[in-house]
User: Fold these one by one.
Assistant:
Number 1:
Amino acid sequence: MSIRKNLLAFGAVLFFAGAIPSWAQTAAETQLDTDITTDVQDILITLNGPFAKGMGLFSSLGWNTPPVIFDLKDGPRVEIGAGLGAQLVNLPDLSSITASMTYLDPGATVSIPTFIPLPFPVATARVGLFNGLDVGGKLTYIPAFDLSAIGIDLSAEMTGFGFDLRFKVVDDPLLPTIAVGGSYDVMEGNVTVSTPLNQTFAVGGGSADISGTAAYALDWDLQSFGAQVLVGKDLAGFYPFGSIGFQRNSGSVTSSFSGLITNLDAGGGGSGTDRPLAAVVVAQLPVLFEPKFVLGIDVGEAFKWGLLFESNGVDVAGSTSFKGRF
């Protein structure tokens, strides 16, 4: 099943928070709203915890991290690069919370993959300041797009940028190069998917048949401070390197749901009234501190191809890039 279908299936289960006035509801509808909303909250809490944690790593991906410090005096002075990558966000098995659900059975109804890939394009630039110190900049950008014109109910946009400073600690022909660095990254974005609803739930002696439309939106606004130690060795055009460090993440990841339910019959006692969906929003801060591990290689001299793998110990990401040094 495709990632989009999985997201839509996830959304279809979560859009059941009715928002019609209480005086227009039957007792069966009122009780159903209360119980389904509780189920929805449990699912959101289960999913948003690891997703928010993964977004902390996502905000800082794409840096070119070999410990080659640029120098305005002796060169190389400047590096410019462009690349593309994806992070795999590790999601929990929803069947683990099935026993706590009143009506929903997320383990059987919702098909969520173990990992969801989040793509990111990235452009980087770096310039030397003086011997042993350089500064870098990073831009990650996906312009706003809407695929509804071609029959895909998906829209999204993303913007991120960052700055870092690196200082050379050891640079000896016989020893690995060692540098230390610090970075600041910011990222914000959103993605929205829409889906038709077609669900049936057992309620008392009857059932609730749902037929309508709904939308699932994910918004994030993140900041990350990081520090790391970088180690690498130039082996005549082949440069393996790695780093270890930590990040302090802050910000929010917010999930919201909206739409319309039609043709509702709650337990044989429903009013059949169309029901607008109140937005259900859950915001959760990413973890304050997390580790960060990097392994990579650069191949080439003045023009290089790079391959990079990054992780926070739970989620993983990979990227490839091309870079030119002047």
Note: Residues 1-20 have pLDDT under 50 and may be disordered.
Number 2:
Amino acid sequence: MNSGVPNTVANKRKQQFQKACKEHGLRLTPQKSTIFEALAETNTHPTAQELYTAIQKHFPTLSFATVYKNLTLFTKKGLVQELDFGEGFKRYDAHLNEHHHIYHTSTKTVEDVILPNNTHIPLPAELSHIPLKKIHITYVV
């Protein structure tokens, strides 16, 4: 899997993951570590199948069911982001800092979009009375 993530960033993500696992009472198994590391080292926003294929080369005994089950667990615990671009499957992202995405329909690729901290995102009037937890913008081109 094409990395694109500097080692310092991947290592920071791994440390945050290990800390979060302890906080959530999750046992840090070799399977969990391997799955998260593969995700933390890429910016490609892979699917469960793509992660499984990449991991199989180094961990042939790991099943697709284990990869999928752990990605679902990581998502529920807030350790990764699950993304849905209407492709019929989910993509995953270990980059948890505030950011948005651009989805390229022609190449089926996803990129991170980092907006400046002071960017004002206007809300429709219908949402003004609802306490939002997060705003995520997806640009589709």
Note: The beta strands are 81-83, 91-93, 100-104, 109-113, 138-140.
Number 3:
Amino acid sequence: MSDEKLDNLRDLLETFMDPSKARQAAEEIREGERILRQNPAPEPSLELVLKIKAKGISQLRQRRRARIWRKYAMEVVAAAAVLGLIASIGLRLFHNGGSSIAYIPRAIWETYDITNEDSNLAYCSTEIEQIEQQFHKLQSPYEETNTAYDEVSEMEMELLEIETEFWKG
């Protein structure tokens, strides 16, 4: 260690301890560096360095293969899950021999008017028919245009009533 570096080290150590102890610590550090320079550590043999490198390369290859297989396995599992989901949905939808997509009761298919069985549905269908008639009346060229605005606002109010009534029931 050069004298300048030793002085800098001593100044630094004096900020943390007494000046006499700082000089003694700086001298011990200087002596330790001299001993280390006189007795260098032995270098590893070329064979040992090559064995360490070969082992590192082998481990990296194993990790790489494992990562590739793990990624492949995750893709296969995801594909199998999707196929299983599709199959289960298909089985549920086509459980009647593939004749219908969803289960619809036979009574609905056989009756022409199912509004007779459901009062809410009957009410809504009657209201829809009335609104449809009003729309046809508005589209007619023979009607007065002054009343068209009043009828549209009336129809909007009726639609709002029907909507609230439908969601209440």
Note: The chain has six helices and no strands.
Number 4:
Amino acid sequence: MINPTFFDIFGTLGFIIILIIGILIKSKKRKLSNNALNWVGIILILIATLGLVVDVTIVIKSFLLK
């Protein structure tokens, strides 16, 4: 039977992808400044960072220190 914490590895990869997307949105240089996209980038970066911290902590405690 698969341990449910095994899926935190996939969550970690998902949050890395969300973080990359947020950084790309935030770092795009546009001729017309779109404030809404700027906020979307910031929110994605925050969500991805917090999720990454939680998932990496669970992965380290469950798999690496076991």
Note: The mean pLDDT is 87.
